[in-house]
Amino acid sequence: MLTRFTDAMPRCERGLELAKEQKDTNSERVCESGLGTCLRFLTRYEESLPHAERALALAKERKEANREMEAEWALGDSLRMLTRFTDAMPRHERGLELAKEQKDTNSERV
After folding, report:
1. By C-alpha distance, which of 81, 85, 36, 27 is closest to 58?
2. Are 18 and 27 spatial neighbours (Cβ–Cβ below 8 Å)?
3. What's the 3-state SS for the chain?
4. Quick one: CA dihedral 70, 46, 42, 79, positive or negative?
5. What is the predicted pLDDT for the residue at 104?
6. Which long-range contacts (CB under 8 A, 24 or more apart) does 71-74 make?
């Protein structure tokens, strides 16, 4: 929250290790999402992709539509910043679809 992304990354990485050890898929998703976010804000878009993809897979596995929406957006955003627009479009479209299903007008606007 303080935008100290470089400082946050080792904490997310350690949290991810612990979550995997404990088979805690919710915490794993949170840490994968956090790592992806840090990397995106550090403009390390290519590196952020596997974390966003894993967060998305975990959200789908856990049937958490709101987290799936966030992960779709994050993945689409990294792809967009890499100018991979053809790959980004379906991610943003799916995020929009999920926002509409949840009647989340703020996310729909984004």
Report:
1. 27
2. yes
3. CCCCHHHHHHHHHHHHHHHHHCCCHHHHHHHHHHHHHHHHHCCCHHHHHHHHHHHHHHHHHCCCHHHHHHHHHHHHHHHHHCCCHHHHHHHHHHHHHHHHHCCCHHHHHC
4. negative
5. 83
6. 71/33, 72/98, 73/107, 73/110, 74/33, 74/36, 74/37, 74/40, 74/48
- Report field, pTM of the whole predicted structure over 0.85: yes
Question: 72-104 pLDDT, tens per residue?
Answer: 999 999 999 999 999 999 999 999 999 999 888
Instruction: Give me the amino acid identity at 69.
Output: M
Q: What is the length of the chain? A: 110
